[in-house]
Amino acid sequence: MNDILAYAETDPVLAENDDGAREAALRTELLVQQYELLAREDRAILFVVAGLDGAGKGSAVNLLNEWMDPRHIRTLAFGTPTPEELARPMMWRYWRELPARGRIGIVFGSWYQALFAQAARRARDEEALESMAAAVRRFEAMLVADHVQVVKLWFHLSRDAQRARCARLAANPDTAWRVSPDDLKVAKRFARLREAGERVIASTHAEPCPWIVVPSADDRFRAMRTGEVVLAALRTPPPAPSFAKPVKVADGRLDNLDYGDAAMKRGAYEKELMHWQARVGRAVRQARFGRRSLVLVFEGKDAAGKGGAIRRVGHALDVRQYRIVPISAPNDIERAHPYLWRFWQHAPTPGRVTIFDRSWYGRVLAERVERFASRRDWMRAYEEIDDFEAQWVAHGAILVKFWLSISDDEQLKRFREREKTAFKNFKITPDDWRNRRKGSQYRRAAADMLAHTDTPHAPWHVIATDDKRTARVQVLRTVAQALERALSTGDET
Asked: Domain Polyphosphate kinase-2-related spans what residues (predicted)?
């Protein structure tokens, strides 16, 4: 990139003979396009505001709220993380605030804070910088692919203009509050901050989320340019981001699963169950677990015993320490956001256990088979899910995923038993029978899921469940051993 900030440092101004007609026309069209976005609800728009302190970012955002309907704009200001935010993975605070389709969000203090801080260090870590930039690129591409348009504005001006603007505002008691200590330090550190800005822009300036530099020395020029950028975004959706199709990988675990193990006798079952429940309980009561969390994911065929396995895990825990999150088809609010948004709402916190009865894997299972998600959407989901899980694990989550599998004959037997038994009748629905008729499609989707999302940080545990007792013991043993490994001295995060 050829010095993308150079033009902004010439401090252009709006022509003296501008009579305000251009501004009036711009304001009218901004409102028209905002209401059209609300009516279509085809996407949300996030305007990411960044740049030098003291460049007028706040003034530009205030003006947008004045020119447009502020009832449908959310200004999302992120400062120093709160204790609630620090207790969760870093991206949680951004995910939870994403606007629904048809709405606009303006982001201050975005996911670029840490990246800019690293770039501005005297001895910056280039490897860490590139890793952070790559994470930002993946995050933004995922948002765009899931109907969130990301428009990034970098506000910039020359050193002299920045110093003069701060002095002018500070001299007036009514505007002095707009000048922060950080604003006053910019002029002294201008060269280093400018170079850091160039580095950040260069590492994250890519389709479908390029940077747009807004010259900010002249208030009216800054306002008009900002309005024009916003209008262009409202008028034109971004191009669909490219993605690499997943390489075909075979996973034969479902083909080679043995359903014929002898049934575990009741006495042995109760003894084993109590043993492994006790080990799970002891593990989560360790002081070390107070710095970690446990996330259990249960997926599998209908009637494979997910509910029974979850209840046995719950019996090992203090009821105040865990929660079960049942996942069904998304509601209207959830459909108006990116598909991972509703799962980020349940991001784990230290010392807690979260159990998902079905999960984000619906995108590559039911949504794929029932064609609720396009082929492009579910194919790119494998990489997005791996990245999502890696963020949780990096924050200290011990993530254990189960695929519970049942033979076709045993599934049919359990279906019929549910129909005949009054207290089990609620468990059988027409959807269960329809899914059974699509068994081969679900099996293929499950095999692909296992192949593409079995990672070192979040491996799959495939368990045959024709014998419920054996399966429940295996689940508890797996959870206990995963906890004990993770909480051992060598593996502590």
From this structure: 17-234, 265-486
pLDDT tens for each residue of 1-20: 558 899 999 999 987 766 67
Residues 74-121 have pLDDT tens digits of 999 999 999 999 999 999 999 999 999 999 999 998 999 999 999 999
User: What per-residue confidence (pLDDT) applies to 424?
Assistant: 66
- Write out the two tokens for 474: 């295996």
Q: pTM for the complete prediction?
A: 0.92
Give the range of the structural domain holding residue 78, as residue numbers without chain letter. 7-235
The 3-state DSSP class for residue 19 equals coil
Q: Which two tokens stand for residue 36?
A: 């059209």
pLDDT of residue 436: 83
Angle, vertex CA 240, rays to CA 236 and CA 245, nearest 5: 180
Q: Which residues contact 282 (CB under 8 A, 6 or more apart)?
A: none
Supply the angle between the helices 468-486 and 266-284 in degrees, to the nearest 10: 20
465 domain-assigned: yes
SS3 state of residue 68: coil
Instruction: Provide CB contacts within 8 A for 99, sequence distance 6+.
Output: 44, 45, 46, 74, 105, 148
Query: Between the CA of residue 304 and those of 12, 90, 309, 396, 475, what are the distances in Å?
Result: 67, 35, 10, 30, 13
Q: What are phi and psi of 51, to 5 degrees?
A: 130, -170
**349-390 pLDDT, tens digit each:** 999 999 999 999 999 999 999 999 999 999 999 999 999 999
Residue 78 backbone class (left: φ over 0; alpha: ψ -120 to 50; beta: rest): beta
What's the CA gap between 50 and 210, in Å, rounded? Answer: 13
Number of domains in the chain: 2
Query: Strands 322-326, 460-464: parallel, antiparallel or unpaired by DSSP?
Result: unpaired
Q: What is the pLDDT of residue 430?
A: 80
Do the domain assignments include residue 240? Answer: no
Q: Closest by alpha carbon to 47, among 88, 104, 125, 119?
A: 104
User: Are 203 and 57 within one domain?
Assistant: yes
What is the phi-psi region of residue 299: left when phi exceeds 0, alpha when psi lies from -120 to 50, beta otherwise?
A: beta
We report the CATH number of the domain holding residue 217 as 3.40.50.300
CA angle centred on 141, ends 91 and 209, rounded to 5°: 105
Phi, psi of 16 (to 5 degrees): -65, -30
98 found inside a domain? yes
- Amino acid 261: pLDDT: 67
Per-residue three-class SS string for 375-441:
HHHHHHHHHHHHHHHHHHHHCCEEEEEEEEECCHHHHHHHHHHHHHCHHHHHHCCHHHHHHHHCHHH
- Report the C-alpha gap between 489 and 493 in whole angstroms: 9
Of 194, 218, 235, the residue that ends a domain is 235
Regions in the chain scoring below 70 on pLDDT:
1-2, 17-19, 261, 422-425, 427, 489-493
Query: For position 493, what pLDDT does the model report?
Result: 43
427 CB neighbour count, 10 Å cutoff: 16
